[in-house]
């Protein structure tokens, strides 16, 4: 099980909030080509952050950024529809997938299988709920069908999964580097005290 000190959780929480703000909807011109990190941030918050209030706080941040972008930033309101509420269960699926994985995490290669399962299933459910809600309930499509949605899902899901995996992969590298640094520091301290 992954248990982190409160100070570490605070640092991770701030980093995730900044990452959402920097990449959501391309609000910053210099980061225009980075994919949105929102999905990965909700998953990683589920993995690393224990307080339950973090989930609604991140939801509020995402919604505030969207409102600001549409109201003052000149971003199209095409995605704002009655289906916008489906982001709550979509992001909730990612949060839950992260929390589930945190219970299985060990500093061992065997943890990669539950990680892969939580990433794949969490992302698939998020895509189904968010895209499905938008496709069927937004009012932006004159005619809808399960068959057409399946084709859209097959087209969008690989791109969503690859963006998600990019950020989770970066977080994994940082996690491993931090753990290796702690192990090295502990080994060095033990070596120095024994001499």
Distance between the termini: 34 Å
Number of helices: 6
Helix content: over 70%
What is the C-alpha radius of gyration, as a whole number of Å?
19 Å
Strand content is under 5%
Mean pLDDT across residues = 90
Number of strands: 0
Q: Give the CA-based shape.
A: elongated
Main sheet, how many strands, which sense, barrel? none
Describe this structure in words.
The chain has 195 residues and is mainly alpha-helical. It has one domain. It contains 6 helices and no strands. It has helices at 6-23, 38-48, 54-71, 87-104, 112-137, 146-194. α1 (6-23) packs parallel to α3 (54-71), α2 packs antiparallel against α3 and α2 packs across α4. Mean pLDDT is 90; it is low at 27-31.
Please specify the SSE layout and strand pairing:
Elements: H1 6-23, H2 38-48, H3 54-71, H4 87-104, H5 112-137, H6 146-194
Short descriptors:
195 residues, 6 helices, 0% strand, elongated
Task: Please outline what is shown here.
This protein has 195 residues and is mainly α. It has one domain (6-183). It has 6 helices and no strands.
């Amino acid at each position: 099980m992954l248990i982190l000190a409160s100070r570490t959780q605070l640092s991770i929480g701030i980093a995730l909030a900044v990452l959402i703000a920097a990449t959501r909807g391309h609000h910053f011109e210099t980061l225009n080509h980075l994919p949105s990190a929102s999905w990965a941030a909700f998953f990683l918050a589920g993995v690393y952050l224990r307080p339950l209030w973090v989930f609604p706080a991140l939801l509020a941040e995402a919604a505030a950024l969207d409102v600001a972008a549409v109201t003052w930033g000149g971003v199209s309101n095409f995605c704002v529809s009655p289906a916008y509420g489906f982001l709550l269960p979509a992001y909730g699926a990612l949060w839950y997938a992260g929390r589930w994985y945190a219970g299985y995490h060990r500093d061992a290669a065997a943890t990669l299988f539950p990680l892969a399962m939580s990433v794949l299933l969490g992302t698939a459910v998020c895509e189904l709920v968010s895209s499905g809600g938008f496709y069927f309930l937004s009012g932006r499509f004159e005619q809808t069908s399960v068959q057409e949605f399946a084709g859209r899902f097959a087209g969008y899901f690989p791109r969503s999964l690859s963006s998600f995996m990019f950020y989770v992969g970066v977080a994994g590298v940082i996690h491993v580097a931090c753990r290796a640094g702690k192990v090295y520091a502990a080994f060095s301290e033990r070596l120095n005290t024994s001499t």
